Structure formats: structure tokens, C-alpha cells
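Holo model, fe (ii) ion. Inputs:
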Amino acid sequence: MPDAAKLGHNLTGAQMSPDDVKEMMEAVEKYPPTIPGDSTRLAKERETMTEASEGVGTVPVPGSTKGKLKSGFDKMLGKQPELLVDKLGERLAFERTGVRLYDAVIAKLQASDSAGQKMIPELRHIRDEEAEHMFILKDAIETLGADPTAMTPCANVAGVMAIGPMQVVTDPRTNASQALNALLTLELTDNAAWESLIELTDKAGHPNIAKSFRKAVEQEEDHLRTIKRLLNTELAAHM
Ligand SMILES: [Fe+2]
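Output:
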């Protein structure tokens, strides 16, 4: 596995070639863009497309228990009952991706030095808790009569957001600290999101479901502390 970053033949910085920088700056003056307009047109275009958009998918209407759920929904969150199901779906998708991210980092560390391999048991422990969280969410969604296999709009967006960290950890060139940094991004989001989900679930009138989430929050706080500690240890080992 690649070690911490070291000095090498990196030519990407402008300081590597001052003469070329001068020529480049002259070219900018000499050859302005041939297409009229500036970034305000880009912003305007984004505005127009956003106005015309119908959003990222829909929250599915549960099939089997439609009538029962409909009335339950109405009691749950007034006029926006789908919000809770959407957010539960988001957490489920996020935890599922979390399991895959940890699996990828563990595989990476198998190829590392003994310091890297020492982290594996702690990462396996976190990975297994993320998998447990997934099942807590599956149960919660089913309690509401909704379908945990459905990809809700927020679940879809969470999947897109996770593409960056996933690319970092599955890239064979990234080292342990870069992978841990990707996990840190994940855990920071995870902590904040669970807190907000508990609040939402409580407000929706589901104290039992909210209660089932509290253990997950405590575990997430522990994940965050662990990843911060492992990252700092890994960085200190290469200083
Ligand atoms: Fe976590």
C-alpha cells in the first residue's frame, strides 16, 4: 500500500515553470473567450432548470396497507407525512454505503504495514455497527408500513453524495490516512443526521422509534471519536 505522501517529480504547480506562466497570462489577454457571456448566464441557466425540475423522484405509496397507512400518515406529520419515510430511507441508504466504505478501507489496510493492520479490528467493529443500524432503520420503516427496499428521493441524493468518499477509499493509490479522512467525512455527517432524525421522529409522534435510534447515536459518537483518533495516530506516525 502507498505510504504517506513524499517528495517527488510533481509538475502541477506554477512555480515549476515561471516562463510558461508569463506566456499563459499573455495568452489569456490575447485570446478572450469566443462565446459571449459570463458566470451570470450560467447562474441564470441553473435557476431556469431548477424552476422547471420536478425533484428527485417520489416517496412510494405503500401497496399492501394503503388505507391504514394513509390515516397513520396523516396523524404522523400533518400534510407532509412522506418526509419521515423519505428521511428514514436516506439514513438506511447512508448506513448501507457506510458498511461498503468500511469494507473497502479494511481491504485496503489488509495490504498495509503492521500499524495499518492493527486498525482493522476497530474498523470491523464500526462496520458491524453500521450494519446493525441499517436493520434498525429497516424495522422502523416497516413499523410505519412503508417499504425499506424503496429508494426514496433523499436516499438517492445520499447515494450520490457518497460517491466522493467511495472513490477515495476504493482507489488503490490512496493511503491509510486519506482513507480515514474519507471515513471522517462520513462519520461527521452520520452523527449530525442521526440527531436530526431522532428529532423528526419524535415530532412525528413516534417516541418508540425515536428511542430505538438513541443507541445508534451513542455508537455514532463513538465512531467519530475512534476515526479521529486513528487518523491522528496515522498522521503522527509519519511525521
Ligand atoms: Fe458511524
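The mean pLDDT is 90. The CA atoms of residues 3 and 175 lie 6 Å apart.
Archived with the compound record.
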